[in-house]
């Protein structure tokens, strides 16, 4: 039985995505090529690795075993790259980092930029996920490092403080709510929203909070960035919810009012999460230390 690294990376991508189509995209393979590789892996092993269904794929017992060993093999390769990177010209290392929307947009660009500047041979494979999905991925070995909010149960993982993320509502200066200093989420739901596009971990989190109280968000428009949400809020297209850091930045160029959300879930402590006994590569350990000790200018 012989699998190459492309096989192993593809298999883990499919397992994480729960879909051969999406996994093939992550692995930069066509669907046909990915399907052929997966069938070849099952033929070589003489065992079914994936259970295929109408809603995607799940691993069989044999597939779980392969996924476990594939993670170990790829992690050892990352360790090899990290330890030899200083000596071998052109040999690149990669660190997988999963984070929620606020961490990716508001905190990580500057912090990662500083670190990558002094580690030119290392790449960061950064993916946006909901905190609950990040906990599962890190616990299962699909990622070395995650950044999550305290809204999820991270029992069994090691947590390192990263940042505090406060969510605020943004409205036009002439909006009936503009003079309020704070508002509860329930009252905000009486108004039409401008939100982030589907697939945003933060917007999914906000929709989940609405569902918990039996409500749904009414969207007039969904856009790609916090800046777009604020710009449309300023035009009174709809109210929005963004991190406080984004609202402060946008207030320099757009006429919006920011209202503090009084709900407990709107103030989130972000943490770096790791498996407690994880043998991180030297580069990954250095990155964690940098992210945990970063002091903004």
UniProtKB/TrEMBL annotation:
Entry keywords, A to Z: DNA-binding, Transcription, Transcription regulation
Pfam family, any one: LysR_substrate
Keyword NAD belongs to the record: no
GO molecular function terms attached to this record: DNA binding; DNA-binding transcription factor activity
GO annotations of cellular component type: cytosol
Residue span, HTH lysR-type domain: 3-60
PROSITE patterns per the UniProt record, alphabetical: HTH_LYSR
Keyword tRNA processing: no
Family per similarity comment: Belongs to the LysR transcriptional regulatory family.
UniProt protein name: LysR family transcriptional regulator
Organism: Ensifer canadensis
């Amino acid at each position: 039985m012989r699998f190459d690294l492309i096989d192993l990376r593809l298999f883990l991508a499919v397992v994480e995505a729960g879909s051969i189509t999406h996994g093939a995209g992550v692995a930069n393979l066509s669907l046909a090529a990915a399907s052929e590789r997966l069938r070849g892996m099952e033929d070589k092993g003489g065992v079914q690795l994936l259970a295929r269904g109408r809603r995607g794929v799940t691993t069989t017992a044999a597939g779980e075993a392969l996924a476990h060993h594939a993670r170990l093999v790829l992690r050892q390769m990352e360790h090899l790259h990290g330890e030899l990177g200083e000596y071998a010209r052109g040999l690149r290392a990669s660190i997988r980092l999963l984070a929620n929307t606020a961490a990716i947009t508001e905190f990580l660009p500057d912090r990662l930029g500083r670190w990558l500047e002094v580690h030119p041979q290392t790449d960061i494979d950064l993916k946006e996920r909901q905190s609950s999905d990040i906990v599962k991925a890190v616990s299962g070995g699909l990622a070395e490092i995650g950044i999550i909010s305290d809204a999820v149960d991270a029992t069994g993982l090691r947590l390192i403080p990263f940042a505090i993320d406060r969510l605020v509502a943004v409205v036009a200066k002439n909006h009936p709510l503009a003079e309020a200093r704070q508002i509860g989420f329930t009252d905000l739901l009486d108004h039409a929203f401008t939100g982030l596009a589907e697939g945003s971990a933060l917007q999914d989190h906000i929709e989940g909070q609405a569902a918990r109280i039996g409500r749904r968000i009414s969207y007039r428009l969904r856009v790609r960035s916090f800046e777009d949400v604020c710009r449309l809020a300023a035009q009174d297209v709809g109210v929005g919810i963004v991190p406080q850091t984004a609202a402060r930045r946008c207030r320099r160029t757009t006429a919006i009012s920011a209202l503090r959300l009084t709900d407990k879930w709107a103030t989130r402590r972000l943490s770096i999460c790791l498996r407690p006994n994880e043998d991180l590569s030297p580069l990954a350990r250095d990155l964690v230390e940098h992210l945990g000790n970063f002091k903004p200018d």
